Amino acid sequence: MESGDGSSKPSLAAMTCVLGDLSQPDGSAELTHGGAVVRAAVYGPCEVKMSKEILDKATIEVVFKPKVGLPRCEDKSRERLIHDVFEAAVMVSLHPRSSIMIVLQEMENAEGLMATGVNAACLALLDAGISMKFLVAAVVCFVKSDGSLDLSPETQRGQADLDIVASLTFVFSEKDLNIMCVSSTGKYSVEQYDSCLHLCREASKSVFKFFRESLERKLSKSI
Fold first, then answer.
1. Where's the Exoribonuclease phosphorolytic domain (predicted)?
2. In sequence order, what are the residues at sequence separation of 6 or more whose Cβ sits closer than 8 angstroms to the Cβ of residue 211?
């Protein structure tokens, strides 16, 4: 994509998703974004273990399953981040003393897996009909070794881009595009952070549009 001054402007890779393809969960979504693929399943609201029961709101539980092997430290970090995001976004007060579980299965690992997981979870919650205060969208920006920024590095699935020196994943609420959280790796300058924030905030508009179009397509098929 070209910007107004003729310079190259980073743009998001194409996204595709399938909603409601699983029969057991209350809602599900398989999202492909670039080389990353995540399948999300939502269960609930349903009965919660007494040890996890909260009297005035639902308990949000998140499980992130890697493609191979047992969960690693980074998977547990993803669980905590996604939990905090959706505990704030879901209308948990509507379902006291119950559980809403989000299970994320990594299908293909690539740059931007965290953002793909957040977006897949949001789509699955929509598919399950869970009431939310606002939608959330995640966008990742990569800082290359030459200082350039990229929203969609051309990498093969399961392979890392060796030119990437830092990555910043921003999660935005649809209301006013406020930042809900930021997760980053690598080294970057304050100026690069600000540039990444601007790019990701603008790109999040496309993600929210994708959510609406995906849900509209499913609803139109069911009529």
1. 15-130
2. 119, 122, 123, 126, 135, 137
Q: How far apart are CA 213 and CA 198, in angstroms?
A: 24
- The model's pTM: 0.90
Parse the chain into domains and list their residue ranges: 15-218
SS (HEC) of 68-125:
CCCCCHHHHHHHHHHHHHHHHHECHHHCCCCEEEEEEEEEECCCCHHHHHHHHHHHHH
C-beta neighbour count of 217 within 10 angstroms:
11
Q: What is the mean pLDDT of each run of 10 residues along the chain (223 residues)?
A: 48 92 95 94 92 91 93 91 96 95 94 94 97 97 93 58 87 95 95 97 97 91 67
CA pair distance 111, 167, nearest whole angstrom: 9
Which CATH architecture fits 15-218? 2-Layer Sandwich (3.30)
For residues 62 and 86, the answer to whether their CB atoms sit within 8 Å is yes
Amino acid at 211: F
